[in-house]
Amino acid sequence: MTSTPHTPDPKKHIDHLGAPWPGLIPLRPLGISEILTSAVVLVRTHAAVLLPLALLVSALGAATEFLVVANLDSRAAYFDGSWVQNIADGTSTSIPSAVYLPLLISLIVGVLGNCIISGITTVYATEASLGRRVNLAGLRERLRGRWLSLVLITVITVAATALGIFLLVIPGIIIFAATTFAVPISVMEKSGVRDSLRRSWRLSSGLRWRILGAASITVGVGFIVSMVVLPIPTDLGSLALSLGVSALISAFMTPWTSGVIALLYIDARMRKENLATTLQAAADARQ
């Protein structure tokens, strides 16, 4: 039987290029399309854990944003968008708190929740690459002692990226690409915050266009889906509907994006550090 780029030989566990394929991915440098589709398979395989968790995180962020808007005296500014024209014509120089406060609080909730999803997805991706599945007990063991580092790494990278984009745009994009691997590194290599960020900067060198390309696709997919299905909120009722639909979209997009990042990390190490040999040896040892 001849294998295809996304189907291993069922007898020999190899792909169409002859690379070993013990699990989720062939153990060789991967194409962007392979990473994106493999991340979908990863989410589908572990949907029982990832989707409810991502939905919970998204729902918490949406509920927080809704409650903040509902309790603002000046919430009309959130819906009418007149502040944009006011800034454009010079009658105002600041964004109303009714606009940025709900989004900021929702962002904080989302960032903290995404730390959990990213950590879990990284473990799943690594084990799946070996053809193994990890249970909840194994998941807790692999992530024990990692949570504080994950939170700090995420806060630092989000803040640094946002600042860089706000100031000159390009520095923020570079920071994002250079620090993308910090969370997977912290989980899989048990590194601290500083070491994870430094190693991510080195490991991503020469691969940042690939990272940005994959990130652009995931962001683009989410943006297109949101534009098609999300209603534009004009009052609290339509806001609740919009946030609810957004939470459902994020329930898939968040773990998928985390899976893409985890697989980009594995791919980078196969390209630069011959990780494929180590993974194959680990897979053989478990047979």
UniProtKB/TrEMBL annotation:
Keywords for this protein: Membrane, Transmembrane, Transmembrane helix
Bilayer-spanning residue ranges: 25-43, 50-70, 99-126, 147-166, 172-188, 209-233, 239-266
Protein name as it appears in the record: Membrane domain of glycerophosphoryl diester phosphodiesterase
Keyword rRNA-binding carried by entry: no
Signal peptide range in chain numbering: none
Organism: Nakamurella antarctica
Taxonomy, superkingdom: Bacteria
The keyword Membrane belongs to this UniProt entry's keyword annotation: yes
